[in-house]
Amino acid sequence: MMKAITWLASFGVAALTASAFAATPEGWSTDLDKALVQAKAEKKSVLVEFTGSDWCPPCIAMRKNVFSKKEFISAASKKFILVELDFPKGDKALSEKHQPLAEKYKIEGFPTVVLLDSEGKEFTRFFASEYPEIKSFLKHLDEALEKKELD
Fold first, then answer.
1. Quick check: is 16 in a domain?
2. Looking at 3-143, which runs of residues are DSSP E strands?
3. What is the rounded distance in angstroms from the CA atom of residue 145 to the CA atom of residue 147?
4. What whole-number distance in Å separates Cα of residue 39 and Cα of residue 88?
5. What CATH number has the domain bearing residue 33?
6. What order do you get walking across the sheet with 112-116 strand by strand?
């Protein structure tokens, strides 16, 4: 039930930010296929963030407080290839381009993070906004990787 509420609430607050959606933060890719090739080559996992950068308040907060920060990017990049798949209201073409991936991964709300192994197999997912600070987010990533190793 919570997922549906998050999803609907997000749509209700369409234009919370005055600025158009910001460019993808440095250190992030927007091409999942290329990221998977790189992950395989570097023996890393892939962190895919599904976001609505210009209409979803939790997404905007996560980008501002976590995903755009050098401290987060440098730490997370040691174990993950970072991919942002954006669904901005202000760029229909980009949203449509990413739509098949949202359907493939059955995304039910934003910001959703899906973690994939180097073969592209999902090993966990969660709402990014559950971990609104760099420290808690990185700790959750480490725990997810440890759990994956045990499986």
1. no
2. 45-51, 80-86, 112-116, 122-127
3. 5
4. 26
5. 3.40.30.10
6. 80-86, 45-51, 112-116, 122-127
- Which residue range(s) make up the domain with 128? 25-150
- Supply the DSSP string of 80-101, one letter for each residue: EEEEEEE--TT-HHHHHHHHHH
> In 3D, which of 70, 60, 77 has the Cα closest to residue 111?
60
> Is 73 inside a domain boundary?
yes
Number of domains in the chain: 1
Three-state DSSP class for residue 115: strand
Q: Do 136 and 72 form a contact (C-beta atoms < 8 A)?
A: no
Q: Is residue 122 part of a domain?
A: yes
Cα angle 60, 42, 129 (rounded to 5 degrees) comes to: 20
Give the pTM: 0.84
> What one-letter code names the amino acid at 65?
N
The mean pLDDT values, 10 residues at a time, for the chain of 151 residues are 43 38 80 96 97 96 96 97 96 95 96 96 96 97 93 75
What distances in angstroms separate CA 23 from CA 33, 77, 112, one per listed residue?
20, 19, 19
